[in-house]
Amino acid sequence: MQTYDLSQTFIKGFSQEELVLYTKDLCVWYGEKEAIHNVSLSFEQNKITSLIGPSGCGKSTYLRALNRMNDEIPSAKVTGEIYYQGVDVNYKNIDVYEMRKRIGMVFQRPNPFSKSIRENVTFALKQHGLKEKKLLDERVEKVLRQAALWEDVKDSLDKSALALSGGQQQRLCIARAVAMQPDVLLLDEPASALDPISTSKIEETLLDLKKNYSIIIVTHNMQQASRISDYTAFFYTGKVLEYDDTRKIFTRPKIKATEDYVSGHFG
Ligand SMILES: Nc1ncnc2c1ncn2[C@@H]1O[C@H](COP(=O)(O)OP(=O)(O)OP(=O)(O)O)[C@@H](O)[C@H]1O
């Protein structure tokens, strides 16, 4: 069967300002239950977008749809459009593995491999044929610096990643995702299990990473959304009720439900 090689399919002439990723009328069903309904959002290069909303409103489902992680859930069915750099992500013959290199993901719970810190970063690179030690070492240092972890671990690169603290493990997971040089980084509540200091380090890391990536983050932390994101989408019962500049969402939302949610007066 023919596979769809994303590297061959960029639409020429896109400027930095063009949209990296967008969805149009995206719906996701789990069996008979529709979890998100007609979600149309677009994401720009070098911007952070927060997805906020009450529990169960479909934020993670939406995020997972963006790099087809819902494929792993047998009951999930996706309709509508997802376009990444002009490529239809839902195209059935797409090379999903290749696409996930471009649209990387970091999960809520840090999930480093049970390997050394170095191998966590180099594992996928080696799988993709990068063998030269010097290049691997350079990439390890670069991404650990980008994830603000280098100073903590530079003398223990060959020690187990599982010996790191939760916050360090999560920064290692960010480094691991960044090592593949994606264009888009999806993060599902990456700091929810962390203490305030680790959370603030993750936020600094994300603000630094947005120079190179488009970042989409699910968060329940309103301060976090307002501190780090350029745009915010408010999800409610599977729909996006409001999407705007983060400053507007937090100071002059158009919809009462948004105002109630961001001010903590929901329900
Ligand atoms: N694997 C699944 N199978 C069946 N239903 C699911 C599955 N995952 C999520 N759902 C349902 O889809 C709806 C949306 O869930 P989702 O996890 O996307 O919401 P969320 O906004 O991310 O919630 P939270 O903030 O609590 O993480 C919920 O009703 C949930 O029960």
UniProtKB/TrEMBL annotation:
Claim: Hydrolase is one of the keywords in the record: no
One Pfam family hit: ABC_tran
GO CC term (a single one): membrane
Signal sequence residues: none
MF (Gene Ontology): ATP binding; ATP hydrolysis activity; phosphate transmembrane transporter activity
CDD domains: ABC_PstB_phosphate_transporter
Cross-referenced SMART domains: AAA
Keyword annotations of the record: ATP-binding, Cell membrane, Membrane, Nucleotide-binding, Phosphate transport, Translocase, Transport
Listed Gene3D superfamilies: P-loop containing nucleotide triphosphate hydrolases
Chain ranges of the ABC transporter domain: 21-262
GO process terms (BP): phosphate ion transmembrane transport
InterPro entries xref list: AAA+_ATPase, ABC_transporter-like_ATP-bd, ABC_transporter-like_CS, P-loop_NTPase, PstB-like
Nucleotide-binding as UniProt keyword: yes
PANTHER family noted in UniProt: ABC TRANSPORTER I FAMILY MEMBER 17 (PTHR43423), PHOSPHATE IMPORT ATP-BINDING PROTEIN PSTB 2 (PTHR43423:SF10)
NCBIfam families per record: 3a0107s01c2
Full protein name: Phosphate ABC transporter ATP-binding protein
